[in-house]
Write a structure and sequence with these properties.
single chain; 13 helices; mainly alpha; disordered N terminus
Length: 299
């Protein structure tokens, strides 16, 4: 992996994912918890995820002059929070899904109680990993604050999406409500990934602001693509049940803008993401490529 004095070698996504997974495997193996709980966490954590959030975290760190190793603990912490959210979202009391990443959801693989407890343990473990992985107290405090705030925002987004919560006296269009849901539910953790990476890379205020702006656009774009996949792809292609949002009458980009309108929105958000990165120059090229790949993803 490159150091601060070695900027000629750029690690591949595969290398970065292996770095994060290695740190997570070692961390989970060393947790002093029952074996069946450890197995449940491992099932949820190593089930074939794309590791988008860890990649955003480490790539943001590198774009600001840091090294991959500087951000690997923070990247692992973000992934723990993300995986906890998936486990709990899949529960019968929430989205009631049987399939995640092409295989049984954790509560189907084990049982509901274990899925709840595994999600709880992953949440606590995320902050444990930050404390173990970073020596500077000030940095630990900053990372903890960002991750805790974004986790609460993500949970708020789930409430908005499934249980209401918008102020009925506040005039908002359905599209504004949809964007607010996804700024919280999806965008908050993506923004935290870039923000935490910037902190690990000792970014300037200007660099940090641009990375957060990039992540904000990517977060909305990611969800717009997700909504498209839900209406244009099969369950087998996506690896989770499709068509549920429309059946439940949820607000989605295609329901409000149509399929072609949603594709136009994706292109607009991609342009905003790429424009935000312009001041960062070539070191941000991997982030540009990641945004383009997320705009074109098929699962």
């Amino acid at each position: 992996m490159p150091t601060r004095d070695d900027t000629t070698t750029t690690p591949t996504d595969t290398e970065l994912i292996a770095l994060v997974d290695g740190r997570l495997r070692t961390f989970v193996e060393q947790l002093y918890i029952p074996g069946n709980l450890r197995d449940a966490i491992a099932y949820a954590l190593f089930g074939g995820g794309k590791r988008i959030r860890p990649l955003l975290c480490i790539r943001s760190c590198i774009a600001c002059g840091g090294a991959a190793e500087d951000a690997v603990a923070a990247a692992g912490a973000v992934e723990l929070i993300h995986c906890f959210s998936l486990v709990h979202d899949d529960l019968p009391a929430m989205d009631d899904d049987d399939l995640r990443r092409g295989r049984a959801t954790l509560h189907k693989h084990t049982n509901e109680a274990m899925a709840i407890l595994a999600g709880d343990a992953m949440t606590a473990s995320a902050f444990h990993l930050i404390a173990l992985g970073h020596d500077a107290p000030g940095l630990v405090q900053q990372l903890t604050h960002v991750l805790a705030s974004s986790t609460n925002a993500m949970i708020a987004g789930q409430v908005y999406d499934t249980m209401g919560g918008f102020d009925e006296d506040e005039a908002r269009s359905d599209l504004d409500k949809l964007r607010e849901i996804h700024r919280c539910k999806t965008g908050a953790l993506l923004q935290a990934s870039c923000y935490m990476g910037a902190l690990c890379g000792r970014a300037t205020e200007s660099q940090t602001a641009k990375l957060v702006e990039y992540a904000s656009a990517v977060g909305l774009m990611f969800q717009a693509v997700d909504d498209l996949l839900d209406v244009t792809q099969s369950t087998e292609q996506v690896g989770k049940q499709t068509g549920k949002d429309a059946a439940a009458g949820k607000l989605t980009y295609p329901s409000l803008l149509g399929v072609e309108g949603t594709r136009t929105e994706v292109a607009k958000l991609l342009g905003q993401a790429l424009a935000a990165l312009e001041p960062l120059g070539p070191p941000a090229d991997p982030l540009r490529q990641l945004a383009r790949s997320l705009a074109q993803r098929t699962r």
